[in-house]
Amino acid sequence: MDYIYCTPEWLEESARIYRSTPRFHEAMKKLSARVFFRVNADPEWGIDSDLIFGGVINKGVLDDLGFFSEDETKAKAEVIMAASPQEWKLLLRKEHKFITDVMLGKIKLEKGSIANVWAVTPYADTFIDAITQVNLLFQDELTPQQLNEYRTYASQFRAKLGI
């Protein structure tokens, strides 16, 4: 089954897989962090305003993975990083490395310190693996009709979730 990037179904399935896969828990067992990712608005991708998703991990246990409002993000996040959807795609497709893109400024640190980023960096590849266990489709790979359907669906789930 295909999952479209920046949909609740993608994050729900990724969370289900993480929780049912011991190697993710084992690889992340020393990590406790609340890291959030801002996907900057890009109307050409059907993302008309910023979307924020995040993960809350406590000693390797995934407590939460989902979309969050600005207020929830500010209250919960230790680290907030922002980038374009195209940049996130490069990371999720493993065409770029997280730490390199942070150092080059392609990923902007909005909240937290560089020390926070260094603390989560050893776990970045594992987290990326966890959220890319599904066949992930990006908006630039959709037909114009599918992109319009995504835009409509995004406005619906955003209203429902209050994001």
Describe the protein:
- With 163 residues, the chain is an alpha/beta fold.
- It has one domain (2-161): Nonspecific Lipid-transfer Protein, Chain A (2-Layer Sandwich).
- The protein is 44% helix and 23% strand.
- It has helices spanning 8-19, 22-27, 70-76, 85-92, 98-103, 114-120, 124-130, 144-161; strands spanning 2-4, 33-39, 51-58, 61-67, 79-83, 108-111, 135-137.
- Strands 4-3-2-5-6 form a five-stranded mixed β-sheet, sandwiched between helices. A two-stranded parallel ribbon has the order 1-7.
- The longest helix is centred in the last third of the chain and has 18 residues, at 144-161.
- It is globular.
Write the element-wise H/E pattern from the N-terminal end onward. Answer: EHHEEEHEHHEHHEH
* Low-pLDDT windows of residues: none
Shape: globular
Name the average pLDDT.
94
Spatial strand sequence of the major β-sheet = 4-3-2-5-6
How many strand units? Answer: 7
How many DSSP helices? 8
The helix fraction, in percent, is 40-55%
Ends: how far apart? Answer: 26 Å
CATH architecture call? 2-Layer Sandwich
CATH domain topology: Nonspecific Lipid-transfer Protein, Chain A
CA radius of gyration = 15 Å
How does the major sheet shape up? 5 strands, mixed
Count of folded domains: 1
CATH C-level name: Alpha Beta
Protein structure class: alpha/beta
CATH superfamily: SCP2 sterol-binding domain
Strand content: 15-25%
Question: How are the secondary structure elements laid out?
Answer:
Layout: E1 2-4, H1 8-19, H2 22-27, E2 33-39, E3 51-58, E4 61-67, H3 70-76, E5 79-83, H4 85-92, H5 98-103, E6 108-111, H6 114-120, H7 124-130, E7 135-137, H8 144-161
Parallel strand pairs: 1-7, 2-5
Antiparallel strand pairs: 2-3, 3-4, 5-6
